[in-house]
């Protein structure tokens, strides 16, 4: 791309064409290609148009989305915070681009374990979407879906179920059963049903989600792999451990190939497989995986992230089984402090740990 030889109007047209290609890479799951293209485009746009040009800001958003999809949440967070600041200054808080950027920032707060900040921003986004677009607009429904996810992360499962059921009903009516947004809502509702121990309902939704993902996206798409992972958890909940094991081993293999060994979703797959090994009394294999999970989560997410804390507790249980009590106690003490500070003493996860 040589913008220096283009007139400004031609340079803008060229940059938008390249941006469309980068978005297509992201949507098809080719995140490395999308990242490379967006990073090149952003450098060129900053030089040609400046940091505060709307096209430059759009590319920043796209690059943040690519980092997010790659599990590089802290890099995505840095970009989204800057983009939200720029949109608020240039377009105001109620502009659709500002609201969209705020929504992405809220989702990223959740991924780095800042759930209370995520909740506050999602509530603000939903309020603005309702006022500017109306209650049945797809973007307003998406904001309701995102708020339901925060309720889930904060252990407010009944509220999450009510909101998810409403979102799924609206998406089926407005978007249709095979729309990606509808499928996401089905998946989210299945996860909430699992937390509420409504396992048969979770199973029916999870199997339908996986069928649709395979039909529309193919077996190796990241969203299809997520659906397989979620279904394996439901199999575990129902005591169908061998089916869960087979699916989890497939998920781990695909995630390592498609996303890489250090991606947060690959680490989740390692963790799920370790838990199933424990259920099947394959304790030494579980211990080895849990040590690997904690190592990766500390490196990728940091010591204070809730998922890292949960990995500490899981590993402590394995250490206890092998009578490595001092190592177990050290991890439990760190985890207890982290849980109180990040989730609070009323969160269901903290209560389960204390019990």
TrEMBL record:
Domain of life: Eukaryota
Keywords on record: TPR repeat
Positions of transmembrane segments: none
One Pfam short name: TPR_12
Database matches in SUPFAM superfamilies: TPR-like
PROSITE patterns in the cross-refs: TPR (PS50005), TPR_REGION (PS50293)
UniProt name for this protein: Uncharacterized protein
């Amino acid at each position: 791309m040589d913008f220096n030889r283009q007139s400004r109007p031609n340079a803008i047209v060229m940059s938008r064409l390249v941006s469309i290609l980068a978005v297509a890479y992201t949507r098809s799951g080719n995140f490395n290609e999308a990242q490379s293209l967006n990073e090149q485009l952003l450098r060129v746009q900053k030089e040609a148009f400046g940091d505060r040009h709307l096209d430059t800001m759009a590319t920043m958003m796209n690059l943040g989305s690519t980092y997010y999809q790659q599990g590089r949440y802290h890099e995505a967070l840095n970009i989204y915070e800057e983009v939200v600041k720029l949109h608020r200054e240039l377009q105001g808080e109620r502009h659709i681009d500002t609201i969209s950027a705020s929504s992405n920032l809220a989702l990223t707060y959740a991924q780095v374990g800042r759930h209370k900040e995520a909740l506050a921003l999602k509530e603000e986004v939903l309020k603005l979407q309702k006022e500017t677009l109306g209650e049945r607009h797809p973007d307003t429904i998406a904001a309701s879906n995102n708020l339901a996810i925060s309720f889930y992360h904060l252990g407010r499962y009944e509220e999450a179920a009510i909101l998810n059921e409403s979102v799924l009903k609206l998406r089926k009516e407005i978007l249709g059963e095979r729309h990606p947004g509808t499928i996401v809502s089905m998946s989210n509702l299945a996860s909430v049903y699992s937390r509420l121990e409504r396992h048969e309902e979770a199973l029916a939704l999870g199997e339908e989600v996986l069928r649709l993902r395979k039909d529309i996206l193919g077996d190796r798409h990241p969203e299809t792999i997520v659906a397989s992972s979620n279904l394996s958890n439901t199999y575990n909940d129902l005591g169908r451990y061998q089916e869960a094991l087979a699916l989890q081993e497939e998920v781990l293999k695909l995630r390592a190939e498609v996303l890489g060994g250090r991606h947060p979703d690959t680490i989740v797959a390692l963790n799920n497989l370790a838990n199933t090994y424990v259920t099947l009394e394959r304790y030494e294999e579980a211990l080895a995986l849990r040590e690997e999970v904690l190592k990766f989560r500390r490196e990728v997410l940091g010591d204070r992230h809730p998922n890292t804390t949960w990995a500490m507790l899981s590993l402590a249980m394995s250490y206890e089984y092998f009578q490595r009590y001092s190592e177990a106690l050290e991890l439990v003490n760190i985890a207890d402090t982290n849980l109180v500070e990040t989730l609070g003493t009323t969160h269901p996860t903290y209560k389960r740990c204390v019990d």
